[in-house]
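seq as requested:
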Amino acid sequence: MNSKISRSYLQDVRLGFVSDIKSVINNNVTDILIIEGFLIYSIEELQSIYNLSYYFDECRKRRFHGTYNPPNYFDRHVWPSYLRAKKHAFDQIQDLISIDSTNY
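struct tokens:
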């Protein structure tokens, strides 16, 4: 079995995800829709639907305690990638509210 996921498969998953979310909103299925995951802010097709956006910042605390191979992988790759994604989220969503959940 090929362990690589094709780019077209990921695009299909993304389009299906966006379609499902828009369907829930357009059909008034719910008054409140919670979508979890900070990478959601990088999906341009969804940026117009956010009424309230919260960014719970706890990545470093949670991921720092993981086991990575090689040992410096977290500091060299995981954390810098997270910081880039976080900056992108705040650049894309004007009223994004940051909540530091590391102390809870």
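The CA atoms of residues 54 and 97 lie 5 Å apart.
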